[in-house]
Amino acid sequence: MVRTKRRLVVWGLSAATAGFLFGYQAGVISGALLFVRREFALSDVEQGALVSMLPLGALVGGLIAGDLADRIGRRGTLIADGLVFVAGTILAVVAPSYVVLLVARAITGAGVGIAAVTVPLYLSELAPPAARGRLVTLNQLMITLGILAAYCVDLVFAGSGSWRAMFALALVPAAVLVGRMLRAPETPAWLEAHGDPDAARRVIAAVTDRATADLLLDDLRRSRAQDVERIAARDLLRSSAAPALMIGVTLAAAQQFAGINAIISYAPTIMEKTGLNLSDSVLYSVLIAVVNVAATIVSFRLVDRLGRRPLLLLSAAGMFASLVVLGLIFLLPAGAAQSWLALACLLVYIASFAVGLGPVFWVLIAEIFPPAARAAGASVSTATSWLSNVVVGLGFLAVTGALGEAPTFWIFAAVCAFVFAFAYRYVPETKGRRFSEIDQEVRARRTGRARVDAPSARPTG
Ligand code: BGC
Hints:
Radius of gyration: 22 Å
Low-confidence stretches: 452-461
Helix content: over 70%
Strand content: under 5%
Order of helices and strands: HHHHHHHHHHHHHHHHHHH
Structural class: mainly alpha
Distance between the termini: 16 Å
Bound molecules: beta-D-glucopyranose
Shape: globular
Number of helices: 19
């Protein structure tokens, strides 16, 4: 029992190292930019382009990843991903010009996009149902740790201004990813679908026991029998996966349009506007990153106990309330009280996100699609996430400039209210369930015939 659990954690962490790189690469640019800007004398537009290269590269990487993960396997895709990260990082470190750095960040972005699709897939397919939420949440935990690590690295090298060193440190987790994945197994679902049920049974038995392995293998066979052909991304809307796609795509867009990355990146600017000193700005970023990690740990402990729906609803409510108050604070005259209130709101907002909408989105997109459409569904959902990320990133400052802070935060708040209503109506409870049961609830909710109270979890699947 202890050994099976250990294996699950070791293999889970191996794959989630790609999640760490996702967070690191997204976070590192904020500190590096200050010095890259100086070295290459970049205009505002050029800086914006450099920042946007990552989500744009990720968009492309994510679209390729679904197909790749079906063809060469989830494990093979993650090994390839590690190599993409190595290539992108080395190019960034030696970049002699701005254009080369742009290319390097696009390659790294592709690595991030591949990770975002493949890690949740790998984790959800490796985990027995009762531990699936926790194992997939490991991905979000590693993303938040990656962001925190990047801020700390930025802080350490800020004195010397060595942006190449900031990028270079990503080589360590990239090498770990390749090395560890070479020793990790392929997922049972992929092995079964590719004609190797014996190997699939061995992997399930290695993380559960023999009796459970037979049961889960049987379930894999049955759910695959319903959709014999692999469903490609372009056919999703016309397939049996359409209702799940609506949920994946909506939550992906909502996660971004609720302002998460705008708030993370502009937290120092937001605090400065309330009258605080910008030199403390890095400190706020680190504080926000720490709260992000801490609340994700809470989610990790709760997701398989409370379930996905309660966390999602709680999260949307907390984010909504903090954004409404944050908007109101901006209508007050500047002063110390305003600053502390704003900081409190930002922390409540990030904690609420990290406990629910952050991790649960990734858990759900790995759970709600039928096996034949799982890779394509995750791929299209994450592509929506990256596209929305770019739109919000480009639009945030323009909208705040035109409307002011308060209405901007209220727009984010309105998105959170929408997430609450949408989750209440359409998102199924997937805790501890097998895919066939999840699928039934997705369809029932679509037609309004859902049983809101989900049947209790079955530990063995
Ligand atoms: C989101 C990212 C975000 C991160 C913050 C993830 O769930 O998809 O866009 O930067 O959470 O922790």
